[in-house]
């Protein structure tokens, strides 16, 4: 028995704006069934690939290559989410696509993170959540995508960028990769599925270390703990990923997808607790305790290319509660 997600007006307006920004004209509803993946259902009128400026898709040898190109900051925002929904729908329908690979057009950022200024403007919402929030639902659709998904990263991906990567089936990293979940220092928590996806990748204790510590995880450590599959030299990364993706694409798709479903049935025997994550996130937003640390984050150079590529440790440090003593060196 299917039931429609009830989205609040704020979320619905954000999604409609996002899909329009991605070049779509949509009639949208979101459906959910206990035994089926979350999916967005809409009519799209999309005639050329140029109508997907954020997530362009091309198909080569059975592999769908999704190039994320979202200047100037590569934020995980409404435009990205709308384009992601559209490209997932397109790739799922396309029988020539057997594997989906996500890469970035930005040499510094796979994805930066969510829009901190936008989060600061989020309104008070006293109602308890009864369904996953929009970002959780979209990233859960990524996780449940029937065809294998791969992230190819050789740059920074924090916050929502890390959550998106964590929803993919595999992640291969170049040596310049930097991952992290800096939300707790900002006064919130990962609210796009990160508390659920990351713990399944690296285990509870490591997830707590990453999320509560708020610091960066570099490529070699990320591979050692399972945050990424492995590290490959930058010059060889694309060739490595292409070879693996094309190899998988050459096998019978029914067998590939059946194996993925069987593995997920064990790993995800207990469904992700998105509603708990959403309610905890909403309570923090309602308390408004995130405003001051997020403003300190922005004042220190957060959400800028220079700041987040050269001095993120200092920016994170700037978010400390000024009433708390700093730890001894």
From TrEMBL:
TM region positions: none
InterPro entries associated with the record: ClpP/crotonase-like_dom_sf (IPR029045), Enoyl-CoA_hydra/iso (IPR001753)
CDD domains: crotonase-like (cd06558)
Molecular function, one GO term: catalytic activity
Pfam families for this protein: ECH_1
Gene Ontology terms: biological process: fatty acid beta-oxidation
Gene3D superfamilies assigned: 2-enoyl-CoA Hydratase, Chain A, domain 1
Annotated protein name in UniProt: Unannotated protein
Organism: freshwater metagenome
